[in-house]
């Protein structure tokens, strides 16, 4: 129940020696400020590093073929093999936990010979033969037109989706691109869409210089037949591609007569495994931030506990009079605890406010000067603020517990004799 007299007494007790109170409160302020800043910095680093994944579905593995390193069933080591569409079908049929199994083929590349021509303009670009679901595995923003669909796959339509970097290289500013034709290695493809890919800063320019065409049209135009260059394999939600990839490899080894223990024959990059390592690193950083922040906060709590002991000593006669007039031990204890919690929360909230102000200024600087590599949008969420509030309340109770216990031990007759 709210008591104006009690709160007036708390304010009067804490402001009686305001300089001493302010110095004591600074320890708590600084501790919670350090905690908020460390958590925000860790979040900024996490955002920057995870941005390097470029929006790719993280539960994904990319796999390709390599030289076979062990002889098996009369076949020599060192031979090469290729994936085919039957491999894709077998993987989909035997492992229902997989969401996508996307066969891919690739042509050309940055730094190579010019392989794409449009009028008098030309350039060297990566050209990919893909299926429509690949946009789910590596999200991209379609800026005009559309992405490929299964009608394109079934009818082997020679259509293309180009990045904004390709558009800038092959078309004039403001020129309509949709519906026009580009030549890829001498084969005409009609442009049906443009995209801007979500990607890491270091690779963003190159990632906008890619061209996507239907897998079937790619195979037909460039004489790939049934061959598959590599695959992007994504597990369903609730399943780990890291746990499933051995099953995928076993199917490939069986179909291509590869020794069961020949792990070098299939190259792979497990994005989920790498993502888990990064995620684990930032969980550890968050734990360290809490540990350091709470240690600094603890020094402030010790200071508040000491000042409350002094306050109790200075008010010994007052406490004795209140006890003599019938005040219960819980009333005395509650008074001291409320003063301690009040001082802790006020100083802590000032620390949170200063931390939030610093984060706001830092984000404003980042927005004004452009993105910084491996650091983006430092912030703390509402859950962190609520956690900090509970830490403050607990800390205030902890700081006031010993002084409160000392206060209720004061005997009225002894307190009245104190000068």
Automatic annotation (TrEMBL):
Example GO molecular function: transmembrane transporter activity
Family classification: Belongs to the ABC-4 integral membrane protein family.
Annotated ranges, domain ABC3 transporter permease C-terminal: 291-411
Transmembrane regions listed in the UniProt entry: 21-41, 287-312, 341-362, 382-402
Short name of one Pfam family: MacB_PCD
Keywords carried by this UniProt record: Cell membrane, Membrane, Transmembrane, Transmembrane helix
UniProt keyword Transferase, yes or no: no
InterPro entries tied to this protein: ABC3_permease_C, MacB_PCD, Macrolide_Exporter_MacB
Start and end residues of each MacB-like periplasmic core domain: 21-248
Entry GO CC: plasma membrane
Protein name stated in the entry: ABC transporter, permease protein, putative
Location of the protein in the cell: Cell membrane
Membrane-topology descriptor: Multi-pass membrane protein
Upper taxonomic lineage: Bacteria, Pseudomonadati, Bacteroidota, Flavobacteriia, Flavobacteriales
Organism: Leeuwenhoekiella blandensis (strain CECT 7118 / CCUG 51940 / KCTC 22103 / MED217) (Flavobacterium sp. (strain MED217))
